[in-house]
Protein 1
Amino acid sequence: MSNQVRRRYSDLQPMKRYSITRLIFALVALIVLFYPQQFSKSGVVTGQKRLKRLQRSPRSVAKPPPASIRVDYSNFSHSTKKHQAACNTCHRLPTDNWKKVRDFPDVADYPGHNACVGCHRPQFFKGAKPVICSVCHSKVSPRDDVRFAFRNAAAPRQFLIEFPHDKHQDVIARMFRRLPAKQRPLFVRASFTYSNPGADDKTKHYNNCEICHSPRTTAPVAPATGWTDAFIPDAATFKAAPTSHAACFNCHWKSQQPINENCAGCHKLGDKSFLTVDAPKRFSLKFRHAREQHVAECTTCHINITKATTLRGLQPDVPITSCTECHNKDGLRQDVSKELEAIDKNRDFVCSYCHTSDVGRLDPPSSHYLIAGREAMKRKDLK
Amino acid sequence: MTGTTSNRIARRALSLALSLCAATLAIAQTPTTPPNARGVIRLKVKVKPVTPATGLSRKRFFLIKGSLAENQSLIENMKRRPVTSRDCYYRGIGASEALIAWLKQYDCESVYCREVDDWKEVDAVPEFQRAVAAGEKEFGSRELARKWLTVNLSDQIRDGYYRQQQQDLRTLLETAKAKVTSVMTDQKGTAYFTNIEPGRYVISNIIRIEGSETASLWNCEVKVEAGDISMVMDRPFQISNTRDMKPLMLKQTKCFSDEQPLPACPTR
């Protein structure tokens, strides 16, 4: 049967055969064009892709030079095999200078010369200004022993930090019972003056996310391309994150692992060195944590943080519903709905209540339309 | 003859293409759940005395794959696990009554609950006094010794209660080979399980949560359907440890805990 058809098909005039082939291809192309979801792997039409969070994303600086190239001794790398001995081979904890530069015992200085000279004697005594000295010393001179601050904020980072949010949130959990004031125990020692427990609750500071994420006090750094729409968020728009051992050693100094001598418990050597980018990158840059109405507990909006076992792959985890419980409620406000309606009238409308124009000019994600009780649509489909 | 044959073939090819097109259109019209569709649960935990504002704050809840029947042996093991109250644990390791009173006063499970920021508290609790004395010797600063007080407490006092609970949790889950995810409630007792594959699950706290007189254990079956978080905002999965609440709220509550009285502590 198939041979017969094939023979008949080959008998056709070349022009006619060409037309039939063209017709079939055109039909298949039309089907694929109009029903892409039937042909995609996930079965879902690929929608608007969210921007990648750029804040503190690792940026490759340089690959280690091949062995054939001269070694640059001004660049110290923990990736070098011979630099991977136990941390306390070179680093002391605490360093002698901690009381001068910190208010807690810490690794506050570079290792001494002994740590380097054992292997690098030739480089140490090469020329008047040995290049190897510039790893630690801001000025290379035998008469000047000034060093960079430890750690040198301008130097690329080599280690990634391990931090399980879930465990830390567990250990600061409270009991749920609240005893009536009369049943509360009172301290019996004469030296302890006991005041009203109700009043105590207001002044006592419970450990919560804020012990590490207090309101930011320094202004954020502008992105490399400048602030979009010249909108400059103030410091209180953001929360701070720990930048030193101060946030860790108060519990992990000794006994509670990972302790001060177990550096690898928190610091994992990365594949590449990287520079941290302090410039904020947010979808809703206009959201201010410090705004007086934004008083909920962190986990009320950051709904996935309590299951985060690592800092790797943390994603923006504030759903639109965290905002619209107030900002798109009947009888309250209709901030999302209003801007979607504005797009209906003018497809070039830029959403600006929460977003700067880099985000505000994109197609609103389907979650926004769902909140407004509408079918999701694309700007290009509007007249 | 050749012309007739070629016309027939052209017609066949055209009808084949049209059939293909029609079949695709039919498939496209059939509503199907995308294979990667995920669901969300908005969990609300109300505890006695129930008011709209009282929620069980900062407690971990687990989502266990499978129905109640499928997880029966795990649930039986949870129920059989003996309850050690916080007070009994601390009494059992020989903690001072002053330390137990300090924990009780601030509803704390451990000394990590809050910073001991008042010297009067240090003076009142012998364990704190000893820790500050050791810290002062080590750091040369009484203030730093107070701030870092927990580093000089014994292991059992510092986090023994937490470690004991974690050990029990691990044992229960490893024995059952259960696949779980977990989240913690916020101050209003709300938590979200996101990105869940549709199906049947059990929401459980696994380790009983201690209340003022009883310890609560929730094991609640929930059916998860694919959908966006906005669809569950008005339909939370509400659970409680009491039926003593207003009728409307009672109607909204999907599951109640199994309560067990707190045991009396053995005398020292």
Note: Residues 36-65, 179-202 of chain A have pLDDT under 50 and may be disordered.
Protein 2
Amino acid sequence: MTDKAITRLASLHITGWLLVVLIAWLVLGAKVADMTSFSKGLASMNEILVRSWLICRGGDHLLVLCWLFVLLVLAAILGINLAACIYCRLTRAPNGRNTLRLWVFTAIHLLFGLVMILHGLEMALGQKYPPQQLKAGQTAVLDSGWSIAVHEVNFVNDPKLLELKGQEARHTISRERFDMQANFVKVSLVRNQQPVQTEAIRMLAPMSHGGMHVVLRGFGYGPEGVTATIRAVRSFLHTPFIVAYALLIISMLLWFLLSIRPIPKQRA
Amino acid sequence: MPSLFYNIMVAAAFFAYLSGIAFNRQARRGHARFLSCLALALTLAAALAGVLENFRLPVYGLYETSLHMALVLGVCLEFSAHRPGMARLWYPGRILAAALLGLAWTAAGEFRFDFYIYHSLTVQLFFFLRITAAGLALFAFLLFATAWTDTFFKKVRNDAIAMKQGVNALVAAGIVFLSAELSGTLWCMRGWGDIWHWSANFFESAALFLLLMLPLHVPGGLKRNMANAWVGMVCTLLMVLAVAVP
């Protein structure tokens, strides 16, 4: 590709307009998420890996599929624009001038690109299993010889609280009424009939073994007593994603510190 | 009784700002500066009392959002007061802080409902850092508005100090907003096992971050006119409204 073509691709005009269109597209997605058909499509996307969703369920939710396609195309164009911009900045930088600022600038854009790539990979790599409602003694069979055995569901608060939904639940289930430590589910992660890890999982405190994460989504209450909604996700991207995100914030902070240096008097 | 305390503190801070503005009009700068600092100290005291009473950081809700944004804006105004060109922010900054306190006063002491997930610090940080970012974006809005009025009415180049400070405040808001998103990602990982969720809230968050980044990517050809300041002003205002009026 010629240098001229790369320069055109790196244009800030493209960046600016892409950002405007992306913002509009995301806001549109947020607004149409109120529609029942669209929200059902999104809910099904959250249950499994997007790669699997595209193959198995995408055809049932054409509106979501179209919205996702446009979003991915826009993100891809932004990625190309970003790569071209970094190339131009690095190849045309004046020697010895503002070197630190240039490297921090490059780091911010590279890390932003990395975060976007990790988001993309999260849609395609690993495995996500739909949540399952289980009671003590039951086992959820996953795949590749993996399963989750529930040994104990311990809920010490008023189980009737679990029947509340939406705003009513938010206004009623206070920190005093829901003990995050005492309410737990004891589970075993099993591979080929051999337990590999046994632990008590709590709300917002999952169990992790290698790349397998077992999450307690919530408790349920019905005629069979208190049950637990458990979800398993196999992904090795959690740690790299958090590290890349944290480094992006640090690089932006460094840029900010370089920018707030005292202003020369003649400009003031 | 606690509600009375918050009413008194917020009202006192509100009137301290108004008195400071009046003293500044009479060119009594020392009194004005003292009252402005007093208002900030009272706002901080009310915010800290709320944290201690609820045993959590401020999260959404009219009272907590308005009070915290007034606090962040007040801190930005006081700590940047010595920087060149910031004197022009004296009136609009204090008027905006007083307006936020007036808003908080209408719901003084009415804290957001106590949901059990506030046990988690990552959840608290998500909301707290978001309203902090909104406060910083409000400060950036003031600076961009100053730069815009310079170019619109006085026909001066807008690469002036207000513009530079506005960009700095915008970057600061972006950093804090991204930190909130990082907390949100940790919350999502622990609660759902994902780093991203396909839902309206996540789309809005992504749109807000891009909105904050848009003024930093205005094409070069427009940089010498008021479009740059105008884009900054509109984007920061939209961000503040989206966070403060969810």
Note: The mean pLDDT of chain B is 90.
